[in-house]
Amino acid sequence: MFTGIDEVDWASLRHAYGSAEDVPDWLRALASADTAERATALDGMYAALHHQGCVYDSTLACVPFLLSLVAREEVPDRGGIVELLVGIGAESADGDPRAREAVCAGAEVFVRLTGDRDPAVRRAAAQALVHFLAAPTRVLDLLRQRLRAERDDGVLLALPEALALFVRRYPAHADAAVDLLAEVSAPPYAPGLRLAALGQLALAAPARLPDDLVPTAVRLLRERSAHRARVPEPRATDSLVGRIWRLRPSDEEGSRLLRTLHTALGDRVVDRTALLGGQLTGADPVDRCHGVWMAAALLRGWRGDHGGTVRLLGAQLAAEHDWLRDAAAAVLAELFVLAAPAADDLHTLVCARPDLWTHRVERDSRTLGGPLKALARSGDPRAVPALAHLLAGPAAPVDLGFALAHLGAAAAPLAPAVRHRLGRIPLDSPSAARLAAPLLAAVSAVGDEDAVPEMLRLLSGGPGGPGARDDAVASQVIGTLEVLGATARAVPALCALLGTRHAAAAAGALWSAQQDASAVLPVLLRELTQGDPAGRRLAAVQLGRLGPAARAALPALRRMARSRSVRERVPAVCALWRIDADPEPVLPVFREAWAEDPHSRRPIARCLTAMGPAAAPLRHLAEAELSAPRRHLAPVAGGGGQGIPEDEALLSACREALAGC
């Protein structure tokens, strides 16, 4: 199987990390009797020969040897090699046709592999067959035969995926493949196979789905889980892997089946919600855990009435399995105010398990635990006693202030403790900004003007310097002073910053304190015309706050409104309206920016609210946003973060805009 390998000038060939001299050793190691050696070689080939989907000259040189390896039954772990070949030939990131041609030249080997004695090989060969054998009728016959003869569940579940791939690759022959998928999705086939077929049918031919899709899918899931429960699980070893398995059992195959169905249903939020209801109320805790994570994906990406789903997430907090409870708490913590329907369950868990109030992330650092974080972020004042206890302790979680910020006035009793911690931040610490940000967020939310001395201390940078040594700290403090309306005590410090890179922000805070346009207008005009992009945008926002008193800025704002950057145009025209109240130059820019950048929609909606009836020509934008099912501002899959509250704030701004115009 390695005939001719030494005749290849590997040193002249390249892969992702340079010379391909190491490739022959990897190829030989794939046939090794040592499991670890084989795994290391396969990892190396994926990383070097198929790095980020790219194909190199050494990749092409490897293909004949890889085909020879998979054809030899005595070679172990050939399923992984077949998958590598599929990646090389079918998933080339640079679209190099030579890779596909090289694998197609040996496609007959995949015909034999569909009947191989190794299930992993048969499973991988089904996909390879569809990708590389250019005889669609023959391919479909082979898949049909495999469905009839196959007894391994893992291989059976891969066959519907191969059929759906066939539908996409051979549209002229799709009807027969869809008929086969529909057949497999019905009795007498096993529940798991039927679920797999339904998911692929939803992707390939949604019109062929049964009317009772969701009840059918839920019933099949529970039948499959009941069958799996009757099959003894392999005994866990005393190794680390075995202990982890006992703590968090997994059914990745079942998870894939339901993820596929959710993906195929897409914007059918009502159906997906009903499907989640079945997943989250089943007897199998593993199914419920998969449902928790799939609920997270739905809630992050799609709008709708999610109250019932959130209540079911809350019900998982009482589970006896730590991994299920922790998953539910983590997802609820992402939902912020949308977690309110689960607040009673969160409060019950917070009261019962003080040990879950914090979570250790480093040796000397803790963050809020999921249940308490979720309760506070939902805005429920019942989180205050636990947060007060932590705040009074010697090592309060670093992110505690961010949680307090979501409680608003309910967190007012904790303001003295927040001020105390703010006053203890070391001014010369590289962590000053990280420590200050959550505490300043709490000060802003509570409206604690008594914290001004502590903020001015941070702004001073200590006795040896005239200003904060950390620009991030200065920005945070100035922003908080603006929210509080500043005070007379802060005016000297803010005036001292009018000649620095913080000039626009300091001018805004100074306006909050004094409402004196003569003191801040020259500074803002300078920043608008001479500042960096961020400074120009902030100066435009602050000029808008001055209203008609900023008429001197109109020419510069009109120039900025013609910028190529939507991030500059929007604050410029918002300021134009607030200063001049003329809708003519404003509405066209808003219309274009709304379509160009979803992140511009919230500030536009706020400005439309301020415009009142003058915004009527654009009310259709807000109406369309409120009827759109997808969250434009949500993070990418798995991202979490602030996407949901930002999107909910956009919807709220759109409702306010419609009410005003």
What low-confidence regions span 5 or more consecutive residues with pLDDT below 50?
A: 234-238, 240-248, 636-641
Q: Helix amount, in percent? A: 55-70%
Broad shape: elongated
Strand order of the largest sheet: 1-2
Count of helical stretches: 36
Radius of gyration: 31 Å
Secondary structure tally: strands:
4
Query: What class, by secondary structure content?
Result: mainly alpha
Largest sheet: 2 strands, antiparallel
**Quaternary structure:** single chain
Give the termini separation.
76 Å
**How much strand?**
under 5%
Mean of pLDDT = 91
Explain what this protein looks like in three dimensions.
This protein is mainly α and 661 residues long. Helix content is 64%, strand content 2%. The chain is built from 36 helices and four strands. The chain has helices spanning 23-29, 35-49, 57-70, 78-90, 97-104, 108-113, 119-132, 136-149, 153-169, 174-184, 191-204, 213-230, 240-247, 252-265, 269-280, 285-301, 307-315, 322-335, 343-352, 370-377, 384-392, 400-405, 415-423, 432-446, 452-460, 471-484, 491-496, 503-514, 517-530, 533-546, 554-560, 566-580, 587-596, 601-611, 619-627, 643-660; strands spanning 14-15, 18-19, 358-362, 365-368. Strands 1-2 form a two-stranded antiparallel sheet. Strands 3-4 form a two-stranded antiparallel ribbon. A hairpin with a 2-residue loop joins strand 3 (358-362) and strand 4. Helix 3 runs antiparallel to helix 4 (78-90), helix 4 crosses helix 5 (97-104) and helix 7 packs parallel to helix 9 (153-169). The longest helix is centred in the middle third of the chain and has 18 residues, at 213-230. The chain is elongated and about 85 Å long. Residues 234-238, 240-248 and 636-641 have low confidence and may be disordered.
